[in-house]
Each structure stands twice: as structure tokens, then as C-alpha cells.
Amino acid sequence: MAYTYSKIATYTVGSGGIANVAFLNIPQTYTDLVIKVSARLTSTDSPILVNFNGSNSSLSWRRIYGNGTAASSLSGTDGYFLHGDTSAMTANTFSNSELYVPNYTGSNYKSISTDTALETNATAGELFMLASLWSNTSPINQITFQTYSALFAQYSTFHLYGIKAEV
Amino acid sequence: MASISLKYKSKSGNLTAPGDVDPGAMIPLATVLVGSGGSSYVEFTGISNNYEHLQIRGITNASAGGGSVITMRVGNGSVDSGTNYSWHQIYGYGTAVDVSGNANTSNVGLIISESSVTTSFSGFISDILDYSNTSKYKTIRTLTGIDTNNTSGVIALRSGSWRSTSVIDTIRIIPPSGVLIQNSHFALYGIKRAGA
After folding, report:
1. C-beta atoms of B130 and A68 within 8 A
2. pLDDT tens, residue by residue, A63-116
């Protein structure tokens, strides 16, 4: 039986929270990477900075966004590809995000797609769809997640999977 | 900073005996194909808590209530029909983009239906992360869309929350009215804990 969707690593935030989470030495043996994130932040700031191989440069994105009452589109030249539920949202509620990184070992610039849902028991839940780019030809061997402010709350989880295109 | 070095966790690429072959992390658990006459709902029960995430992939449509939403209820032991849910969506329907959301609902809006046609189905992929984590409420994210040969159609990113820390072992998918039409198909997958 082929394995097309392989578990690589999980990090669960412990008591007290943490500001950064990194996957280091990512195996170069898969075709694509998938990262599933269920995060809550200890501040009211939802952005989460994503960087590759320790570099915060050459990152850009374009998104569509809805907050329960209006839709909008925005672009940026930073690594805020991801968002998490904030301390202002319903307690015990965590985001549901997926980052897809195709051809992460290739020599082209790296395109990343991200879907994020920030639920809360109010009209003002938030949804994001992003197309992002890391304008760098290096294979990705490290991915870091960093809060905009404060910490990832306890029980936030980061799950890294590899996708393989052949048996 | 918390960091996980994966230097010694690479798959070897030297798997030979059938027993050594990694079956992967995405495990098919159950499928439902709706038969003649349709079905008033589709339900998965007794879902094992041995996985980290659940994913449902499928195609479906409702026989009535066109333009309304096929919904989901979840639960532990039985589906929760109380007002313990919320949902949100951003969607485009060919001419504009719009959003909506609701609190204290009795279900999660999941899939757009278009009952004006019976030959087109809505495709959807729905992810429930950490469904067996008893420290978290459960958040559901769904990408769904339907096109009816350019006569109508919608694409949407939807989310929902079940405000319970209970493990999800039951999922029910319910049409807005009428039935889920024949040949609707639902596949439930369990996704193993990464690194386990």
C-alpha cells in the first residue's frame, strides 16, 4: 500500500504557552508538505509569522478575507500567512488552518496556499484564504511559526505531514 | 522557542517486506453511497478516537431547499441538537463575494446545495482538527463548491464550531429539506498524529 500522506512531527504547546514553534531538519524525501495548525493566542493579535529556513525576507502574500459582516482582499510583503484565534474570541476555541507547500525541495520560488478559520460564538468569525510566495530557490528544511505578540496558548498544536507523489 | 529536529525521522526509502510498508497517515474509515430515493441524512457513528484529525470528502446535493446549506451536527454517543454551534462563511457566486455568520446555532453550515439540478453535485472537503482533544472546543473548516453548467453555482470557505470539549464520535450530515440525493458520496478519513 502506498503511503501518500505521512506523519512527520507534531508539537503541542504546554502549560505557560510559547512564542515560537519550529520544525527543523525537515526530511527532503517528500513531494509536498502539509501543516495543520490548531492555534490560540494569549493576546488580541491574530497574525502568526511564518518563515522558511530562518529567513524573514522575500515573503509576500495576497488574500481574500471575511469577518462575518464584510469581505475584502489585501496583499503584504511579510510572512503573516497564518492567523490564530485570539484571547477576545470564545474561550477554548482554536483556529483550524492548513498550509500546503508544494514542491518544497524544488529550485523554483516556493508557492504556499493557506486556508484559515477563526471561529467564535459571534457574527465576527474570520476566514482567510492566502496565496503566498517565498522568493527563494533553496529547498525548505525549516519552518518557524512566531506570534505577532504574546504567546501561543496551551493546547495549540502544529502537525507536519509529508505528501509523496509516488509509491 | 520550541523546536523539533527531524534529522533522524526521515523515511528510509528502503521498505521491502509488505509488513514494513508504511500505510501512511490518512486512513479511510468509512464510505457512504446514497442509494435510490435518497437519504434524509447520512451519519457516521462509533468513530474511533485513535486519530488526530478527521477529514470528510464527498459530493452531494439536496432534493429541495435550493441555495440553502447542507448542515452538520456532531456529538459524543449521539448528535448534539442543541444551540451549541456557530458558523461563518465567505463565498462567491459568479458576480460578487459575500460573507455571513451566526452564533448559537443548532448546526454547522457545511455544503451549498442547488436543488434546481440533479446532475450536479457539490464537492467538499471538511477538516476537523484535534477532534478527540478534551481541552478544546472543535473547529471545522470546509472548502465547498458547485457549478451547474454556468446557470448557477457557488464556491465557499466555511467554518463551524461545536462548543464542547467532548470527543467527537458521531457526525451527521443533513439536507436543508428533502433528501440527500442518490449517488451522493461521503468518505470519512482518520489522520494519524504526526510524529507518533
Report:
1. no
2. 999 999 999 999 999 999 999 999 999 999 999 999 999 999 999 999 999 999
Q: Residue B88: its chain A contacts at CB < 8 A?
A: 66, 68, 117, 119, 125-127
| Interface with B, mutate which of A50, A86, A96 (most B CBs under 10 A) | A96
**Do residues B73 and B79 touch, judged by C-beta distance below 8 A?**
yes
**Residue B47, C-alpha cell as written in the block:** 468513530
**Predicted ipTM?**
0.94
HSE, side-chain direction, 13 A CA sphere, residue B173: 30
CA proximity to B42, closest of B58, B55, B66, B26: B58
DSSP string, B52-66: SEEEEEEEE-EEE-T
Q: What is the pLDDT of residues B136-181, one digit of tens each?
A: 999 999 999 998 887 788 999 999 999 999 999 999 999 999 999 9
Domains of chain B: 24-192 (2.60.120)
Helices (H), chain A: none
- Of the CA atoms within 13 Å of residue B156, those in its CB half-sphere come to 32
Q: For residue A54, give the nearest of A82, A37, A79 by alpha carbon.
A: A79
